Amino acid sequence: MNCRQAQDFSMKYFDGDLNDIESAQLKQHFKVCQNCSEDFNNMSSVMEFLQYNEIEPPRDFEENVMEKIYSLEVIRKKRTDTVLTVLYGITGLLFILLAVIIAINFNGLTIFEAAEKLGDSMNAWSGVMFTLYNLFKVFYNMLTGITGVFLQVAIVLTKTYYYIFIALLFMLFVIQKMFATIMRQGDEV
Ligand SMILES: [Zn+2]
Question: What is the average pLDDT value for the chain, to the nearest integer?
């Protein structure tokens, strides 16, 4: 047997296709050829390792990775949605509150008083519109920030909260002014 044949027999051995006679011939070659003997031993070690260690990636490996990436995307999106929902909620509540206050304000007034109140209310409404305009500007800044790089997001967010703070202060001022008007009206009646 030459080395070429010994290699073929070795492969057949690991495939489990080697018969007893061939096996004996192979062993005979290993006795006289150290190279083939070492190759066979090395190959045996590798085969043993493969047999006892599952080295294939899990079948759903890619699926799991994609799922994780997707869930991260969802969490990121949810966070953005939550911030926007809270902002819309605050705006909505303040808007309803203002509308109710203005509606109450019109009750039990003479035509002249009503006309006067209408003028005041127009001022108040322009205030509301100004505030809403600012809030929309805030939303626009936020959306721009989200699509931008991290530093831009940080800067825009700082700017955003500054605007929200100013906007809320302005709304508070308007509400306070309207409550003061209602109180004064109550005193007169
Ligand atoms: Zn050999």
Answer: 72
